[in-house]
Structure formats: C-alpha cells, structure tokens
C-alpha cells in the first residue's frame, strides 16, 4: 500500500496505554546477517528484463577493487545477488599523492537494475523525492570505514566518485550489508513443490515477506516502511504458512487497537517512529480488515486473551460499518471514508464494498460466537440482509455475473469479492468465475498484486485450480522472468515498465501485499 | 595558496620523531564560541557588491521560522552577520499530518552572497568539486537536533527543502554555529587608527587571520585548510603584531622541519590529518621561506632552543638553494623546482627569484651569526656575489628599473622584491619604486593579495608611505567596499568577479595570505 492520499488533521486519536504495553511485549528481536557482494556488475540493455536493463557480471572482481583507484566520474556497481534490507558498510582509502581535497561521492541503492538508469533529478511526482535511495557524501579524512546510518532496501549498490582531486584516487573495499529482518528463517516450514515455476514463486514470496518483517510488518522496506492494515491481513496469512511468527501479528493488532479515533475508528496505517502514531488516512475496507485479521489469527492460533482484549475494538469497527448499511441490506459509502479495493479508480467499487462487508461480517459472527456476544443475532440478520440484497439486486442471473454501480457495470473485482464472500452456492461461484474468465479476462487495467491475489483466491475458492495457477504464473511468474528477486508493489503484465509514480526509482520492488502466493500455494495447492 | 599543481609521488620523506614531538607540545587549544544567526536574509541584486549580489534582511524573523512549515523547494537563508569557521547545528521538526516520508534537504554554506547564486552542477574546473560547501541530507525521523559533522567556513547558511511530502512540512529552528579558532581574542593588542578605512582594513585582516588559526595556520578554512610555508611566513608576521600566539608559529616551524625529503628539502605544504604528511609539491621560494620564518620568529621572540633545533634544517635549505647560484652570482632554476612569486605566469620571475634568494640570504647570515656557524663567511661571499650580479646585470640604470629574463622585461614583482632585498641604496630604492609607479602602475594582471603585499611593503620600505597606503586602500579597501568580511584568496580590482577557478563556489574568501595589512599597518603606519 502507499498510493492513498488523505489529510484529516483535525481527527483526535486516543492512545490506550494498556494495549500499547501489550504491543510492546511482542516487539520482535531483529536478526542480523552479514552479506558480502557477490560480484561487480555492469548495466547492460536487455529487452526481456524490467525496464530494459539487467546487471551482468563484470570482468573486474570484488578483490580487484582493492587495488583500483577511482577518480572523478568513475563508477562501480556491486551486486549482492539477492534482495536485502539493512545497513551498508565499506572501507575507503586514498591512493596516489596525499589527499589534498575531501572525497565526494554519490551512493545509490537499487532493488532492480533499471533504477540505476534513472537520474533522480528527472523525478517530479507528488510522492516525496526523499524516498529515492541516493546519498551524497563528503569524507574529509581517509582512510576510513563508514557505515551509512540509514537502512536501505536493495540488491545493487552503485558508487560514483563525484571528485577526489587530480592528485589522488579513492579505493573502495570491504563492502558488506548487515541485513535485518525479524523473520526467523530456521522456523520456515519446509516445502517441496514439483512445479519449478511454482517453487520459485513460493521462494520469492517468502523472501518478500521476510524482508518486510521488521519491527512491524512493513508494507515495503524501501517505501513507505509502514504498517498498513490491508497489507497486514495478507502478510499475516502468508506468515502463518511460512515463518508462523504469530506474535508479530499480535503486536500489530494491538497497535491498531490501541490508537483509534475518539469515535473508535481504526486508521488505515500506523507510524512506528519517533513514537507510535496513527495516520490520518481512513479506508472503509482497511478498518474492517481489523476484524478479518483478528479472525484469521484466532483461527490459526487460539488465543482467548487476545480475543478478550481486542473483540471490543473489532466490534466497534463493525458498528461503524453497520451504519453504512441501509434497511435493504445495501451498503452506501461516503467520499470521506472510501473503500480501497484497488488503486485503480477505473471501475465501480460498490459491489466490491458490499462483498467485503459480507466477507467480514461472516468472520465477525464467528468471533461473536467465541466471545459469546449476544449481538451475534444482529450480525446474523445484517448478514442475511446484505446477502439477500446482493442476490436480488446485484447478481445478474442471466449473465451469471454481479453488476456494480448505477451503470450496472460488470467488473472482475465484484465477481472475485462476491465469490470470496460466499454469497452464492458452490456451483454458482464456479459459474461466476467461469463467466468471469470467459467475459472479463484477460485482466486489464489492474496493476496491484493485492487485487490479483483476490482474483486468484476467488478462482481457487470456486474450484478452478488450474485457472488459478495459470493466472498466478502469468502474474507473479512474469515478474520473476523479468528479474524479480522479491515481488513488486505494482505490476501490470501488459505494461511491465509501468510505475504508478512515473519512475522506477520511486517504486517499491519488495512489497508486502505481493507475497501472498506463499499462502495460496500452501493453502490451495500443496495439500491437494 | 592553493593553485600550484605538482605530482612527485616518488619522493621519499623522513619523519623526525623528536621534532614532531616538539610540534605536538605546542598544539594549540581550540576556542569555541557559540554564535546565533542575526537574521533571515534575502538575496538581492546589487551591482556594487561582489558578483552582483548582496543579502538583505528579510521581513521574516528568525523567531518566526519556528512556526513556518517549509515544503518542497522552499528555501531560507540565515545571515550570521560575520564570517565564522565551525560546526552548524539546528533543530528540525515536522508539522501537519504525520511524517509519512523522510525529510530531504540541501544545505549550503557561503562566505559571500554570490556563492548562493551558483549551482554546483555548473562547476567543472580541475580543482576538486568536493570543496563545494553543500550537503544533501535525509532525516528519517523528526523531531531531531542535528549537528553537521563537518566544519564549514561561512557567513550565510541556505537551507532548501528538496521534499517533505504533500502531507507535512519541515520546521527549522535553534540554529547555531560553534565557531572555532585557536586565536585568543583577549590577547589582541589594542590599536587605534585615525583613518576609518585603515581601521576597517585592519579589523578585517585580524578576522581573516583569526579564522585561519586552527590546529595550524591554515591557508583557507574553506579550502584547502592546509599549512603552506609561504602563507605561514605572512601569517606569522601578522600574528606577532596582533594575537602574538608565537607557539603556534613554533609548532608549524617544527612540523616543516620534521618532515623533509631524504635530501633535506622542505615541502611547500603539509597535511595534518589523518597524520602529519608533507605534500609532494616543492617551490624554491617556499622552501627558502623556512629560513625567513625562523628568522622572523627569533627577531620577535628570542628562543635559543628553537634556533638550536631548527638552524640545521634552515642551513640545509640554504645549501640546496646555493647549488642553484652560478659563479657569477646568478640564480638559475630548474622546471622541477620552480619559484612561485605569484600565481600569474604572465611575467618573468628570474629577477624575483634572485631577489628572494638575496632577501633570505641576509636573514640566513643573521641566523648563522647567532648560531655561531663558521659558514657565515660563505653566505657573506654568496650574498655579495648575488648583489653584485644583480646590480651589474639586472639593474637598468637608465630606466632605474630591474630587468628580468632574456627579454629584459620590466615587471613590478622584480622591482618590489629587489627593493625588499635591499640591493640598492635607500635613495635608489625610492627611485626604483617611483619609477615603478610611473612606468608600471597601475598594477595589472595580479590577482593575489600575496603579490600585492610585497608591492605595498616595498613602497613602505622605499619611503613611499602615501603611495603604499593608497595601494592598500585601493586593493584591500575595495574588497571591503565589495562586501568582504574577511579578505580573499584572489582579487583583481580590474575584474572584481574574477575567480581563478571560474566559479565563486570554489574560491576561498577567507585566505591567510591576505591578512597582512594588520602587519603593514602596525609596522609602517601606527608607530610613525
């Protein structure tokens, strides 16, 4: 997540000290791993790779850099051979005459080679330029060993000497990254998948998740390094199937629960530094996914204390959402509290919102049952109403597809979410997805792994396993063939070089919401 | 100094531990002074100031910055009201929605307003770009207080926000510089000068010297921050007349003495960090000025230990120089060991070199006498030879000017140095300088305060006090009228915006060799 933009500075938040203390109790240990670069790289054009570039191994070796003096405009690229999140160190010395001027160099960190082709000056989008992983550094006295104080997310490091002086050159060596993650790799559940493409998709999903697991589940370690509720829900699902570090999920749930608005609404995302702080951005579906994430947690790890602590907060989200449902069982949203569903605003989201509400209400009913909440009957009535409204007014029986909005638009999202919400029978679900394939495929204008995830899961739920696998390969598999070490925040297979920000240096190429194949493969393929 | 460029990497230096220990014994205490900015400034065009710009006081106050959120491309300029050398600190906070992206800003330090008009990208000279006082800084978490780790030389600080995000702004406040100098202002000898222009020239000279007095006498605190022997000689002279911190001179003399080449030659300059190291640059006159600086020291502060320790090194410089004098008493230099005299290479320097050798030999004879060196007779013979050669072959009696080189060129430098060398009678000296004024003035093509110093001192020595004062005012006084807070490394009154590096961001506007009016005024004006 990242693309949503709201300013609501007047909102007042409350901080529940008790819940924050609980969150802090589950603060994860960060594991460090020292990684050396595999080789020196050269950027070469390659039409088959993202952005038309790849990095090939240079004839110059890492060991030879030890003896290579670099002068004004000389550049080296280091390839760490995989994606890492962490702190970069190196040694710098001077060679030649005495160092009669400071060293000035630029250092850039790139997740994909095509970032290195860009010039940061050319980026002028609305998203902050401050995300560009580029530093300009003066060193007055050599030799020195430096560890850059900031954390970066990268596979490639490019060092360009802006200047030494005509009398001496700079020598760079002893490069390393101390990679950081709160994921414990030894806890990873072993898996064997016959299909090598699926195996690779699984592995890259796990690496993506691993690199987003830090002090909380981050959406992207390069940008915006934040805890988003919608992303958390998917990360948690992938996590149960892989590292299964459930206390990190618990920590994040407590954090969201601890900082609601005065009326009890949960923010779409939280900041962790300099102190816990909810963002002033609110999304209807993201607030509801608090219920969903709590439900998934309890399903995987029975935890009555967590339920006791957080059920009241979940219930509050339900109450706030209920207000948006009219007597007919139809959900009507306001502009000030929009549903996200997907970045694209090219399709009508009314039916998707309706389906998400149904999906979550089912989970709420199960939580209410465990909590022995008498209001369970209210939720059951609400659910029936919403389902009936959907069947009667949103399902086009003839087309066997759901319509959305005043223009009765058919779109993929509505079908996927209505299948996930289980509004129809098993056979009907299958038919809806078959019709979706027939009438609405191939997927067009969708650039988020987030939406693709829901489409693929709907295909699995509808019993269309082959089609689900085919779409997963066509989407996540294509990222791999384009060179992905981790899965990307945004990807449109029809337009591989598309960046929502107009420039790959702003894109996040390791993004939490794209890690779900690990979950999908474990849940729907491995055990069948 | 700075402009000289040599590479002699094969030279082997010796390090005399005993002399280095002596130098370290005189390592100065650095005094710190906390300075707050006087006001917020705005850059305005002004043809009467250097580079066509000055900074005027903004209607915005420093106090108001406390409440002013700055967003992408917003800029503020702080005016510290005088030149300082030191470390800059400030507080940075975020205002608006939560900080959803790092802060990225550029900070520039400028000695003169016209530096702020430049874009560092436009500089492409041979002198290292690394000297440009410009940093690009990311801050991940606000609020924070930062102290930039590097030392800068400046009066103006410009902060430009490259980006925050559309949701929040950055607030900068609590600016301060901790200014550094080893000069003890309370030791400054009081002076009263009737002429307000001379008083101002004196004050700016003292400030220039003060800001160049650090761990050693630096040539320029912005660039190149190094101990040059030719500059040291002039700084020491100004120092005896002002702060009189003679131990700092002593320290510098010991350092030069401690690190000669294997044949005993003294380098033109030394590096102090990361360890004491002589540069591989050698200048005939600079090596000789070791004798001159030692002589001046002993004249001002009798010190038999210093004489005992350093006389052998001084004698070595004399021996190496003697080899360049032929039987006729004529000095003949090689390209590999050139005479500096001035940056300009537009005039012939043979006669200047001859005069400098005579000037220094006189001082050597006095040192030899104090040291009771029997070789004093050799130096006396040498001196007589050189004087006779100069009178017989270099002095054009008809023109009453010295000639230089095969083309028998008249140039100002030859006259000034021959007068300083005292080759002629008092009356002749006066006539030479009168002729110089008549035939060779106004000074053309000379851009260094270093050369102007020698011309002005020659006028004083020749008894032309009014003319000396007039030239001092026309040169140093003009820098003041153009806006100087400290005197500049280079200045050509005919071309005020001239920079030897093609861009003012590379120029040093506080440069040691320009501080000599403090000495000239004290020696030739105050007491007469």
From TrEMBL, chains A, B:
SUPFAM superfamilies named among the record's database cross-references: Six-hairpin glycosidases (SSF48208)
Alpha-L-rhamnosidase six-hairpin glycosidase domain: residues covered: 192-524
Gene3D superfamilies for this protein: 1.50.10.10
Segment forming the signal sequence: none
GO molecular function: hydrolase activity
Cited Pfam families: Bac_rhamnosid6H, Glyco_hydro_78_N
Domain Glycosyl hydrolase family 78 alpha-rhamnosidase N-terminal positions: 37-177
InterPro entries reported for this sequence: 6-hairpin_glycosidase_sf, 6hp_glycosidase-like_sf, Bac_rhamnosid6H, Glyco_hydro_78_N
Record key words, sorted: Hydrolase
PANTHER family reported in the protein's UniProt record: B, PUTATIVE (AFU_ORTHOLOGUE AFUA_7G05040)-RELATED (PTHR34987:SF2), C, PUTATIVE (AFU_ORTHOLOGUE AFUA_3G02880)-RELATED (PTHR34987)
Name this protein carries in UniProt: Family 78 glycoside hydrolase catalytic domain
